[in-house]
Structures are given as C-alpha cells and as structure tokens.
Amino acid sequence: MDASIRNREAAAAVKGRGSRGKSDAAVATPAPDRSGLRVALAHDWLTGMRGGEKCLEVLCRAFPHATLYTLLHRPGSTSPAIESMAIRTSPLQQVPGVFRHYRHFLPLMPLAARAWKPRNIDLVVSLSHCVAKAIRVPRGVPHVCYCFTPMRYAWQGRDSYLESWADRPIRRALAGGLLDRLRAWDRATARRVTHFVAISQTIRERIATCYERDSHVIPPPVDTEFYSPSAGSEPREDFYLVVSALVPYKRIDQAVAACTHLGRRLFVIGAGPERERLEKTAGATIRFLGWQPDEVIRDHYRRCRALLFPGEEDFGIVPVEALACGAPVLALGRGGAVETVDGTIGRLYGDSTVDALEATIAAWEAESCPHDPVLARRRAESFSLPLFRGRILDLLAEVTAGDAPAAVPPRPHVDLSRVEKHNRLPS
Fold it and tell me: Does residue 187 share a domain with residue 50?
C-alpha cells in the first residue's frame, strides 16, 4: 500500500451515507466548507452500479448540485444519489439499441464527448477508464481525473483485442489503425487534466507510461460496514470461492481447472459469456451459482476456505471484500492484488497458469491453511468508504485552495524503479 495513503488514514473525513444507505462513521476533523463551489462531474457511462459508480456516488453525495456529464444514462440503473443528479448525456443517448451495444460505439465516443462543455464552474472531476477525462474544461479551472485505467483498448488491451481478428487480416489492419488513432487522442486529451489520481500503484505506473504524468494514489472504497465477519467463530468450510464476471481476462478457467484436478470444491458466483464453456470443462466438485445478491456473496465470503483470484486487475475490490469478512485470499501476484494481499492473510503466486495456482493451493493446505482473520479485517478497513471519502475530498479541497502540487508539471518525476520494486513479489 502506498505510504502516503497510510499516512492519510487518520485525515479528515465527513459525514455521509454509504451505497446501501448506512451512515458513514464521523471523524474528528470537520469537512471543508464546499458551499457555493460550482462543480462538474464526468463519468464514462451510467448503465449499472459497479465499483466505478460507487466512487462516483461519493462525489454525488458531496456535490449534490453538480452537473453530471456522461455518454449514456440508463434511467434507474444506478443508486438514488446518482439518479437525483442533473445528468447531461451525449448524442449517443439517442441511438436506437445503444444500451445493448454501446461498447461497439467506441470509435464514436471521442466525437460524442465533444458535447460536454461545462461553463461557469470552479472545479471539474472526471472518473475515467475510457473518455470521461476528455471533458472540455474552461481555461484556468482545475480538472481532477480519478483514473481507473488509461483507455484499455488503446493501451494494455490492444494486443488481445487485435488477436481476436487474427483470422481476418484486413479487419485486423483496420482495427489496428483505429486503435492507433484512439491512443494518440487519449494521450492528447490527458493534457486537459491538471491533477491525476490513480486507483492503485499499478495504474499510477500506467499513467506515467501512457501519459507521462505523475499521480496521487487513492484506492477505491469497499463497504466494510456491510462486508464483515460473522458474529460467531465457526471454522471455515471446505470450499473455495470465486466471485467474478465470467469473461476471459478474469482467468476463472484456471480456478476451475485447478480445483477440478485437485478434487477441491469450488463455488463460482458470477455470470458472463464464459459460463457455458467453463461448465463444460468443470469437474463434479465445481458449482456455478450465477449472480447472487450481496447478502449471499457476504455469506460465502464468511464461510469459504479461501477466495481464489486468478486474474490481473487494476485494483481488485473483490479480494478486499473477502478480507473484510476475514477470508484468506489466494491471488495472482500482479496488478492491484499485490497492494492488498500478502503472506499473512493469504498467498500470492507469480505465474498466470493452472499449475502455479494448483501448487499454491497445495502448499497452503500443506501448511494447514494459515491466515490471520483479524489482520485481514484490519487490512480491509484501510480501504473503507469513510476513508475514501476523506481522502478524495481532502485532495479536492487542496486543489481548489491551490495547495496541491503544481498542476501539469513540465516533466513528471515518477520513479518507476520504486513502483516496480513495490509490485515485485517477495522472493
């Protein structure tokens, strides 16, 4: 975890309400006065309530009179706090059937984002993994981008996307040219941002590589009030758990294959296009439960032997939810998981293979499944919703007061060797 984050854990936060309507814990230092501050928010699209929308919700509660700019809005798909905002969409909102196929409109999204032109404002905050950071900001107005990742298709997802066209060379060439133009556009629009905030050290490194900019690190929030250990001290049961969308990059196939080969029980909570293929390869010890309510997910976190997390994520909220319930986590040692999981509360493994996951499960079981549920809970609490709220609002207060580091430095001073050392697995 970034040292600056640890040092800020006792920083000021403000009263608010979590995503399920529960009150956040108050803290000692009063919140800065935000009355009269004119704010514009930008978010890529509003089609469901996922991790990014939970970050947005915090800002909507803090700035209820802000205007919220987005490409698309499916009414009723997000929380009441977001739905109550003054929402401004792009011309894509009027395209028939766009909510079923909006990802196919990626080439048009930069053009659609030109419709976002806020005026008479004091601050712009974008939450972006695609085009939200491209919002046009009046000269002299600070623009803080909470970056989930640089545009995925244009950067780290480019090769895998083009590989899907391997048997169609002409389309592959055309797609490659399009992604090259998107990458150039994405880099150019990064200049509109005065302050970047990354969700993890992994994303901080990507921002430095893609945009040549430094950034703060503020991890996204986890609802540790809701995700909590059970009241009793019953021993954990003999099943492993996966909670995930069933899509290829999550590598759920590796968890299914490892538990099938080892004869271990595995419960898979989630849905997606990979489910049919996974079910065909799964052995008798694997159960697919589909999507489940949060209460069912929490119950499984509380009872499982361990959560398996074989994919490389930008941050990884699911492992932190499991830790909040006292569960061990066995995770691939890449991406955001290296900032939340270590040998005291689970295991990290280095290679993204079935063999590596199998060996990790077997070795951990041979050691009698060591973990410290109290430490796991403490680790999760460092990512709680009140702390996120305090960190992000503190930073915005510094920006609007002019106390934040110089906007758009001539050359970012990012020590990537330190980031690489941070992300390196222990020997």
Answer: yes
pLDDT of residue 11: 33
205: containing domain: 3-221+384-422
Highest averaged pLDDT of the listed ranges 47-51, 154-158, 290-294: 290-294
Which H or E run contains 40? strand 39-43
d(Cα 157, Cα 141) in Å, to the nearest integer? Answer: 32
Better pLDDT: 102 or 113: 113
Secondary structure of 279-319 as H, E, C letters: HHHCCCCEEEEECCCHHHHHHHHHHCCEEEECCCECCCHHH
Q: 174 and 28: one domain? A: yes
Q: Please indicate, yes or no, whether residues 209 and 343 belong to a single structural domain of this protein.
A: no
Report pTM.
0.78
User: Is 393 in the same domain as 373?
Assistant: no
State pLDDT tens for residues 235-294. 899 999 999 989 888 999 999 999 999 999 999 999 888 999 999 999 999 999 998 999
* Average pLDDT taken over every residue of the chain: 83
Pair 376, 394 in one domain: no
Number of independent structural domains in the chain: 2
Are 106 and 153 contacting, i.e. CB atoms less than 8 angstroms apart? yes
Q: In the structure encoding, which two tokens stand for residue 10, read together? A: 């006792």
Band (347; pLDDT cuts 50, 70, 90): very high
**84 occurs within a structural domain:** yes
Q: Quick one: 350 and 273 in the same domain?
A: yes
397 shares its domain with 375: no
Residue 106, domain CATH: 3.40.50.2000
Least confident of 53-57, 91-95, 384-388: 91-95
- The answer to whether residues 341 and 200 touch, using CB atoms and an 8 Å cutoff, is no
Task: Answer whether residue 232 is part of any domain.
Answer: no
Pairing of strands 286-290, 39-43: unpaired
**DSSP string for residues in 125-152:** EEEESSSGGG----TT--EEEEES-S-T
